[in-house]
């Protein structure tokens, strides 16, 4: 749409001649010119529609974070290890390096993406809302799941301070002690060894708790746990081949229903990855029955389900 408008503008300026190039030639020339007429300041993720996919072990990808965003994946996971007062990112201690930290792989790139999505221009001076990472849906937050691998009580303060640059710019979804929440472009959720009491004590709260989907009770609501997760193999178990049993199907429906009754989104991890048709059958059954996040290692395959 926009290139056509730009073309018409240009055509008016230069005087449109029937002897000149056709409309498609003009479009090609304009595109090759890299004209600022064709660029929005905020087109980082143009045409990408966000999807309910969780990038499992996102930091393992050749390009963490950006690969997920390029496919519209709206939730990413980083495993963090507190070593020498620094949060390193990796699957196990032996895989850690000094360069790969929560700050370098996630916090700094997110600061730069969100700065680009929220340019300071003559036109944005009165804007009060903050755009998220997805141009097509600026109010869709990106969920950042921080999986604490080291002791929760000692790791939590470091995660909270790692989030400080995002917090300062108003990028974090925040809930006040009166339960009123202010949505932000990012939703930070702790999992793994994240201590429930430590998250409950936060006021205001801008790091949330990944609850157990099989152990929800009235303690949990979206101001504490916007997300609840469980091990699919244990909670459901169907391998995706043949028909799901009634008991397995009702387990999915009951767990999703429990979460949704509290306004919480449901995620099943450890779903089968192989064979492919079985993996897809499980994903399809989960989404058809209301699961909010497809937990995916193969992001392209998960994106193709939408
Ligand atoms: C297009 O223009 C932008 C902004 O002026 C510039 O950053 C970019 O390098 C240019 N790209 C090409 C291929 O010339
Ligand atoms: C941790 O700090 C100590 C003391 O400064 C240093 O000797 C050690 O190499 C550091 N280890 C890592 C993994 O950074
Ligand atoms: C911003 O608000 C001021 C004061 O109301 C107004 O004069 C100005 O035109 C607004 N700017 C834009 C870009 O809307
Ligand atoms: C709800 O579950 C949490 C976590 O397992 C537990 O600490 C809490 O005591 C439970 N609350 C009720 C009301 O059962
Ligand atoms: C699987 O379910 C379908 C549809 O309900 C049914 O037609 C089919 O007979 C079932 N297959 C088996 C092996 O139970």
TrEMBL record:
<keyword id="KW-0732">Signal</keyword>
<feature type="signal peptide">
    <location>
        <begin position="1"/>
        <end position="19"/>
    </location>
</feature>
<comment type="similarity">
    <text>Belongs to the AIM6 family.</text>
</comment>
<dbReference type="InterPro" id="IPR039559">
    <property type="entry name" value="AIM6_PI-PLC-like_dom"/>
</dbReference>
<protein>
    <recommendedName>
        <fullName>Altered inheritance of mitochondria protein 6</fullName>
    </recommendedName>
</protein>
<dbReference type="InterPro" id="IPR017946">
    <property type="entry name" value="PLC-like_Pdiesterase_TIM-brl"/>
</dbReference>
<dbReference type="GO" id="GO:0006629">
    <property type="term" value="P:lipid metabolic process"/>
</dbReference>
<dbReference type="InterPro" id="IPR051236">
    <property type="entry name" value="HAT_RTT109-like"/>
</dbReference>
<dbReference type="GO" id="GO:0008081">
    <property type="term" value="F:phosphoric diester hydrolase activity"/>
</dbReference>
